[in-house]
Amino acid sequence: xxxxxxxxxxxxxxxxxxxxxxxxxxxPVASEMILFGNVDFRQIELSFNNSERIAAVLVRxxxxxxxxxxxxxxxxxxxxxxxxxxxxxxxxxxQVLARLRNGSRPEEIAQARANVASAKADVANARQQYERLKxxxxxxxxxxxxxxxxxxxLTALQVAExxxxxNQKSLELALAGPRKEELTENEARLRAQQAQAALLRxxxxxxxxxxxxxxxVRTRIMEAGEMASPQKPVFSLAVTDPKWVRxxxxxxxxxxxxxxxxxxxxxxxxxxxxxxxxxGFISPVAEFxxxxxxxxxxxxxxxxxxxVFVKDPADELRLGMxxxxxxxxxxxxxxxxxxxxxxxxxSGPEATQR
Length: 354
Prior knowledge:
Largest sheet: 6 strands, antiparallel, barrel
Oligomer: single chain
Distance between the termini: 78 Å
Order of helices and strands: HEEEEHHHHEEEEEEEHH
Shape: rod-shaped
Number of strands: 11
């Protein structure tokens, strides 16, 4: 009996000691939050704007490229003559418009004046001839001059007068210059030809495929000799900056996670290193945790996506790497105390003065 009591007492002492040790070591408020996710970054599918045969592909898989670097070229043997023709047509139309704006040349106006003077002389001569024949016919009662000659002279006078009127109108047109509507029409025609030339020039520029950002060539999809089009990507690029970890937080933890918080990221490939980062995005929409998150207790739960941007200047992180995110948290009691002190400070004399 004494032995049984001794064993019971020993168990009570061990249990009490263990409970005390656990209570002493337990941190009532966690100082760090741990999230799980995968490394992610943007990917770009590059294609040409034109439908033409590829002349050259200048990079291959794994090559690091810089923004503005030439990656591939299209064949422009058919596009170059079209551009030259459009430029020539626009230049010709520009000269036509310049001629209309300048109006008639002085020589053309002088020629029109001379034509008017010649026509007046013809009218005067035709009138004298007609009057002479008419007078002779009247004095001789039609015996000295035939009536047909008189009629012919009258017709010649009318023709000369009409020619004079035509030359006078030509002089007026030469002095007035082109019509406003004609200028407007030729200006529109010039703009259309210039727009066509600009379109062909842009197509010539689009025949060269440049890198839009710094990155790495993931896939070289098409080769020289193949027919490119806007619907067919030529390259798949991985944008190496920025990178982030796509992690997930439970709804109960959202109050402690805020954009801009500093973070450290660990991956299995570098167990002794932590990558610096910060929270850049918290999704406003809940979702079920993806299967890629390696925590069984969270997989069936509704969580919120948290995008943790990470600094990786050496480009050591790879797409899809499992990652663990450590978020340092401020003591909740300290936050509450700071908030209370802030409220009291706002109600003090200085706050009253404000």
